[in-house]
Amino acid sequence: MTITTATRPGSAHICHHQPCCPAAAAPDRDAALVLVAHPEQGWSLLCNGIVLFDDTGELLPDGQTIAPHRPTDRGVA
Fold this sequence. Notes:
This protein is mainly β. It has no helices and 7 strands.
């Protein structure tokens, strides 16, 4: 299987799905399709260039990191 992606200046991968996956900067970025899954290593590569980790942490295409953000982490007193 061959996966082709195009890029444009200032952006991550451009999705070829219809409808397109959310961009890496979009609030719903985690809804992008999984291109490569490595559950044995605890990560997946999404169509928008994000590496999503099993603990819900993320590595964005520009190198920024998003700390794990599980819904159960909120509201703990």
